[in-house]
Amino acid sequence: MTGSKSSTPNAGPVQQRRLWLLRHGATEWALSGRHTGSTDLPLLPQGEQEARGLQTVLSQVGFAAVFCSPLQRARRTCELAGFSHRAELLEELREWNYGRYEGLTTSQIQQSSPSWSIWSHGCPGGEDAAAVQKRCSAVIERAMAVADEGDVALFAHGHLLRALTGTWLGIGACGGGLFRLGTGSISVLGYEHQQRAVTHWNAPAGAWFTP
Question: Which of 46, 74, 113, 193 gets the highest tally of CB atoms within 10 A of its CB?
């Protein structure tokens, strides 16, 4: 894998390009519902199995580019899916910065803040939805500016990919709260005619059909 480059390709956006969203495989905290931002946890054996399952589906797609979060759970998923040799690491694909809520579950946070939601309240000492949306917009711009023809794969994290979906649809990062996303899942953002749309969502690799 290579580090993020400072320059963005000059080619114009490819209107019908699809973005493939690949959430990393299961980790200990993902299964227990603990917010995992910068804590760099490895995949569980279950997570590695989920990641390997992605390879069968993704090997059939001619990707113009592959981008990956620098955190190890995403990098390992990308590797087991067969793309570590060509993936470029993007800092913007890091998971939401949970600040003082790192490692806590939603239920634990709501004991002191009953109405708390990450989508509406954000995280003290971390990021709110507006900050995450800026990162998501940068990722989308980068993906759409890739010069070669073809789709783009994004290996990243649950909240970040949900926020990116809301950003893609024009409903903002907060719109990510409308979507659930499992570990080791495949989702695809594309178009319905000229309108940006979700074309596939939260599909386990074993249940995938060719779009």
Answer: 74
